[in-house]
Design a protein that fits this description.
- The complex is a heterodimer of chains A (about 500) and B (about 250).
- The mean pLDDT of chain A is about 95.
- Chain A has about 500 residues and is α+β, with helices and mostly antiparallel strands.
- Helix content of chain A is about 40%, strand content about 20%.
- In chain B, strand 8, helix 6 and strand 9 form a beta-alpha-beta unit.
- The longest helix of chain B is centred in the last third of the chain and has 11 residues.
- Chain B starts with a helix and ends with a helix.
- The chains are: A alpha+beta (about 500), B alpha/beta (about 250).
- At the A-B interface, helix 3, helix 4, helix 7 and helix 8 of A face helix 1, strand 6 and helix 5 of B.
Chain lengths: ~500, ~250
Amino acid sequence: MNRAKQISFHHGACVPLAELPCLDFSTFRESLLEEVAGDARVASFFGHPAADGINLYAVLAHDWQGDLALLHTKVKTSFPSLTPECPQLHLFERELAEQYGLRPEGHPWLKPVRFHQNWIDAADIWGRDPDRHPIPGDMDFYRVEGEEVHEVAVGPVHAGVIEPGHFRFQCHGEEVLSLEISLGFQHRGIEQMLVGGPHPASIYQLEAAAGDTSIGHTIAYSQVLESLAASEVSPRAYAVRAIALELERLANHVGDIGAMAGDVGFLPTSSFCGRLRGDYLNLMAELCGSRFGRGLVRPGGVQFDLHPELVKMLLQRLAVLEKETRGAIELCFDSPSVLARFEGIGILNIDDAEALGLVGVAARASGLLRDVRLHHPLGDGHKFSDPPVIETDGDVFARGNIRRREIYASHAMIRETLTSLPAGANCTPLGPLAPESLAVSLCEGWRGEVVHVGLTDAQGQLARYKIVDPSFHNWSGMALVLRGEQISDFPLCNKSFNLSYCGFDL
Amino acid sequence: MLHILSERLRQGHRTGKFPKQEPTLPERFRGLPQITPNLNQQQRTDAVASCPFSALHDKSEKLQIDLGCCLFCADCPAVELGALEFSHDYRLAASSRDNLLLGDETYRLAEKLNKRMLKLFGRSLKLRQVSAGGCNACEADLNVLSTLVFDLGRFGIQFVASPRHADGIMVTGPVTENMRSALLDTYAAIPEPKLVIASGACAIGGGPFRGSSETNSGLGDLLPVDLYIPGCPPHPYTALDGLLRLLNRR
C-alpha cells in the first residue's frame, strides 16, 4: 500500500506544498492506479512548470469517505501514459501535451484539446508552427472506411442560438458508428489570465467561465481563496450561496426538460418550461440584480442579503412556480408518445460512465451516486431532506428524470433554507493567501461537479489555477452514447446532456 | 388530451405587453449609469483607476463611462467612490460605438435604420446568431426572446438556422482567435444588404476577457456594427428594446 505516500485532506483545507512529497513517477503511477482501482476517482489532474521539469498534481476524490487525496510527481518532457489503464485521465493528459509539450507516451488518442499555443517554450507535440496560432479543428479525426460509410461534419456554427463546437459522425445509413467531438472554439485563456492573481478582474472572468453556471464557478473560486486564506464564511453566507446554487439548478433543469420536450415535438411542455425557466432567472435577479447570479458570490461570502420582505416574496413566488412547474413537467412525463422517444435512447451504462469519470446529472442517470452536496459539503448550507436522486437506466429518460426529481428536491431545499436562515454577516473580508500552498474546492453545479484548484507562489499569489467544469468529463460520455444510434437522435441525446462548450474550452 | 388542455388553461396567457407597457424589473437591477456631476480631478482619477475593465475615462475634465466596456458590476468600485450610480433604466442600445460613451449629457439611444433598410427589414428581420467565445449567458438571454413571454415573432424578428436565410448577424462573445474565421465566413454567407448586431460587453469590447491573447477583444473593426447592445449579459428587454428601435417600432 502506498497510502503513506499521499496527503489526505478534507475539502476546504489548505495544503502547504512543502508537506507534499514528490513521488518518483513509478510510485505516483502505482498509487494512482491502485486508488482508482479502489473507490477513488480523479477529480483533477494538472501540471505546473518548475525550473527542472513539470510538476504533476492529481486530486483524487474518495466520495464515500468524504475526503480528498493528493499525489505529486515531477516529469521532464514525457511520461508513460496512464490512460490505457485509467481512461478517465485521457483528456487531462491531452491537456498536458497541449499546454506544456509534455508527451504521454502510449496515449491512444493524443490530439489537441483546445487548439492554443504552448504555454511554455517547448516543442509542439503535433509539430505545428510555433509562431502561428493553431487552426481549430485541425486534427486527425477517427474515420471509418467502407463503400457505404459516409461522414457528417457539423459546426462550429450550429443551427440554433448556441455555442460553437465541431462534431464528426461516421455513419452507415442512418446509424452512427462513431462520433468525435472537437472543441476549443470558445477558448478565452481563462486559466492563464488568473495567474498572478487574484486580480480585480478575476472574479468576473470566473462568472463568465460558463455563464449558465456563474454561481457554481464563483462558489468554487471563492472556496479556493477562502481555504488559502484560512477564512471561514458565515453560516448565513453559506445559506445564501446554497439558495442561489439551487435557483441556478432549477432554471437550467426546467429549461432542459423544456428543450428535450421540444426536441421530440411535445410543444406544451416546451413552451411552458421556456417561460418558467425565465421566471426562475427572475428570482435570481431579485436576489442580486442579475438573472445569471452575477455579483452575488464573492470570496468571503455574498454581496447581497436576504431581508425578511425579500424572503417572504421569494417564498410566495416559489410556491406559485412550484405548482406551475410540476404541471408543465408531469404533462410531459405522463405522455406515452414522449416516453416512447425518451426511453432506451442514448444509453450510457454504469461501467462506461465510471471508466470515463462522469459526474453530475449524467453520472447519476447511469447509476453512479456522485454529488458534492452529499459527499463533500462545505458549511451547512445544504440540507438533504430527500434521499439522493439516482436512476440506473442511463438513457435520455433517466437524464430527464434525474432533472425532474432534482427540481422537486431543489424546491424543498430552497424553501427549508429560506425559512431557517441563520443569522450572521454576509461577507467577512479575506486575509492574504498562504504562500506556496494548494487548495482544492468542489461545488455541485447544476451539470455536476465543478472542481477548482489554486496553487500559490512564495508571495501568496496564484501561480496556477486549474478549473474542471463537469462538461470536461461528460462530453466523452455524450460522444459514446451516439454509437449505434440514429443520427436523427443526436439533438435529443445532446439536449439530455446539455453540456457546456465554454466551460470545457475555458 | 384533456389533461394537456386543462394544463394549458392553468398556465394562462403569458406574453408580455411590451412595448405598449413598460416591463417591471427587479429592485436590484442595474441599468443605465449616471455620472455624479461636478467631480474634482482627484475623484475622477480615482474612479478611472478603479475600474478593472477600463470603462471609465477622464475626458476634458469630465468623467465619461464607456457602456461598451461596462459590465454593470454589483460591486462597481466607482459606485463605492461615489463617482456614479446605476439607474433602473434598461434601455441601453446604441447605434454607434461613440454613442456608447456617456458623460453628463442625455444618452443617445439607438436610431432607426435608414429608409431603404427599413423598407427591406422593417416588418421582417431574420437574424443568424454566432457565439464567438460567448459564455452562454448572452446566448441564453437571446434564446429567451423566442419564448412566449417576449414572443419575438410578433415583431417579425426571428433567429434562423442558415446565414443564407438571414438579413443580419447577431454576435456574442469576445471573438476568440478560434472563432474568428468561422464568424467572418458566416458573415460572408449572408446576402447583401445585411446588418451586424453586437450583443453584450464581450462582443463590443471583449468584456471580462478584454486583453486576453486568445481573444480579439470584441468585434472592433472586424465587421461594421449597426447596433450595440451593452450589458453582461444584456437583459432581454434591453436587447428587444434595441431591436425595436432599429426597426422604428418604439
